[in-house]
Design brief:
The chain contains 13 helices and 12 strands. It has helices at 4-10, 22-32, 44-53, 70-79, 97-105, 118-181, 187-217, 230-240, 242-248, 266-282, 314-317, 325-331, 341-351; strands spanning 14-18, 37-41, 58-62, 88-92, 110-113, 225-229, 251-256, 261-265, 289-297, 300-306, 355-360, 366-373. Strand 4, helix 5 (97-105) and strand 5 form a beta-alpha-beta unit. 31% of the residues are buried. It is elongated and about 105 Å long. The protein is of the alpha/beta class. It folds into 3 domains: 4-116, Response regulator (Rossmann fold), CATH 3.40.50.2300; 144-217; 225-373, Heat Shock Protein 90 (2-Layer Sandwich), CATH 3.30.565.10.
């Protein structure tokens, strides 16, 4: 015996004819039954009862019926949410535009006048069944994409979890080696160890970013606001990226106007600015300056990080802060990254009720702009609880 899924795929589409005139039902059945499976109902409630027992692919629905009218039944069918597209073609002997308008307003997909032309009926039926099948295909593809996204997210979480312990071990052994070699004063080997430790720190930051993204997306990270001067956030972020600045040879300059103080999650807000400074340093060379400035704006405050990097193509600006959005930039050789650092910035700023954007800098480079409201975080995806 063939599997159930195969039998369903080979079944002909089911057409439901709903009309209180048995003669009309007889004619429509004669037109359709050589190609389709045809079911009949003489009034609206009977049609609803039949649909519970038998899936239907298309409905031919009379407008004038006792009890539940065709308009009312169509409105009920189209108001159901979360279901597949079900084509409803209204049939009526009335040919007035007002009747057509009422049918379309009820959600009908098409309107046929009685007596129905056989060829027109078959062509319209085939066309709407094709649309329904295309909708099913799209839904299957969306379900597959969601599954792939779920598996990708799960893989990232697994990688982060499994890398943390061995990374901590590597860092611990490197520090032990540095302590043992320090008395010998071997400057060259100590420099190599410092670089290795800096690499482990960078990797740790990447893993932390990935973990923070998924925790925020799942609403498991509470936003804890407190009054914080933006100047403190900016200077702490600059200190945290000092080693990256040394490696790039660029200078990080801080400027604050008006001494704005906002309700912020101190650690997460600092992480946002750190990510943007680190991003700017990645595209900076020796003698460049990364500017980090803050000022009051629109009932809150804005933070801008300005670099002299290659800039962001216009076609990437809209997706740069989406998950893995910077990967597309890496593929076009304009920006590099794992695709989560800037997404983390967006998640945190949005959880605070603010926004983030990127703009061209006059003379070359980019301006990454954060805006935080003064009143503090709002609830987004469970954050702020």
């Amino acid at each position: 015996m063939a599997p159930e899924s195969i039998r369903q795929n080979t079944d002909p589409p089911h057409i439901l004819v709903v009309d209180d005139d048995p003669g009309v039902r007889l004619v429509l059945r004669a037109y359709l039954e050589s190609t389709y499976a045809v079911d009949e109902a003489e009034e609206g409630q009977q049609a609803l009862d039949l649909m519970i027992r038998q899936p239907v692919d298309l409905i031919l629905l009379d407008v004038k019926m006792p009890g539940l009218s065709g308009y009312d039944l169509c409105r009920m069918l189209k108001s159901r949410t979360g279901e597949e597209f079900l084509p409803v073609l209204l049939l009526s002997a009335l040919d007035q535009q007002e009747s057509r308008n009422e049918g379309l307003a009820a959600g009908a997909d098409d309107f046929l006048s009685k007596p129905v032309d056989r060829k027109e009926l078959l062509l319209r039926t085939a066309a709407f069944l094709k649309i329904r099948e295309q909708g099913r295909l799209i839904n299957r593809q969306l379900a597959d994409l969601k599954r792939v996204q779920y598996l990708k997210d799960y893989l990232f979480k697994l990688i982060v979890h499994d890398l943390r312990n061995p990374l901590a071990s590597v860092e611990g052994y490197l520090k032990m080696m540095r302590e043992e070699m320090a008395p010998a004063g071997d400057a060259e080997r100590l420099l190599i160890l410092e670089r290795a430790l800096a690499g482990t720190a960078d990797l740790g930051e990447i893993l932390e970013s990935v973990a923070e993204v998924y925790v925020l997306e799942e609403g498991k990270r509470a936003i804890n606001p407190e009054l914080v001067p933006l100047a403190v956030i900016l200077h702490e972020a600059a200190d945290a990226t000092r080693e990256a600045a040394k490696r790039s040879g660029a200078e990080v300059r801080i400027g604050v106007e008006g001494d704005p103080v906002l309700m912020l999650d101190h650690r997460m807000a600092r992480r946002c600015v750190e990510n943007l400074i680190a991003n700017a340093l990645t595209y900076s060379s020796a003698d460049d300056a990364v500017l980090v400035v803050a000022r009051p704006l629109d009932g809150g405050a804005v933070v801008e990080v300005l670099d002299r990097g290659p800039g962001i193509p216009d076609e990437l600006k809209g997706s740069l802060f989406e998950k893995f959005g910077s990967v597309e930039g890496w593929m076009t050789a304009s920006r590099r990254g794992v695709g989560l650092e800037l997404h983390l910035v967006k998640l945190v700023v949005t959880a605070h009720g603010g926004n983030v954007s990127v703009h061209d800098r006059e003379g070359g480079g980019s301006i990454f702009r954060l805006w935080f409201p003064a009143e503090g975080p709002k609830r987004v995806n469970g954050a702020g609880k």
